[in-house]
Amino acid sequence: MKTKLLLPLLLLLAQLSFAQTTTRSVVGFGTVVTGNGDLPGPMLLLGTQRKLGKRIGYEIMASGSSTQGTRFFAPGYTIEEKSKGMSLDGGFHLYLHLGRLTFYPAIGPSIRFARERYMKSASIRQVNGQVVEFESEVVDEHQVQLGGMLALNIDARLTDKYSLGLRGSVHTYHTGQRLAFVGFTLKKTGWWF
């Protein structure tokens, strides 16, 4: 008898917890670095977060980034490297509330569509300290990169609907590409429109 009542009770509790959901729209801007930390650039972040209760939630974020830099080998011998792409991330949250502040880490999968231009190899020949021969193999290709995302968010509630946040995240992809992002976010309860 008790087991027959337990299943409907669990279903009712699950339905009530989902009825307590809160949707928040997110827009963010910050700085991203790629490669070995030597290619900086801007990153724009758009998405939505959903709280499924007081302590758990998830997010779906879309971001675009563009980084570029020049590697210097000797006077007149440089290589320009670029990484431009758009990514779609999904993350699972665990919330910790301290007054008007909310701390929550996020972890989840990420997919990135990117154009990568990087140096694969270089050969430099010097005579008496002068470069006499320089050869390099530069790869310029479009890639679909699969990987994961780890983020830490700190939000300060400004009003009942708006909060300002600080977000730091690291994306790692199967191609070896890593992106580190630090920026600000503005969140609104409900949708922007």
Automatic annotation (TrEMBL):
Domain of life assignment: Bacteria
UniProt KW keywords: Signal
Signal peptide extent: 1-19
Name of the protein: Outer membrane protein beta-barrel domain-containing protein
Organism: Pontibacter ummariensis
Lineage start: Bacteria, Pseudomonadati, Bacteroidota, Cytophagia, Cytophagales
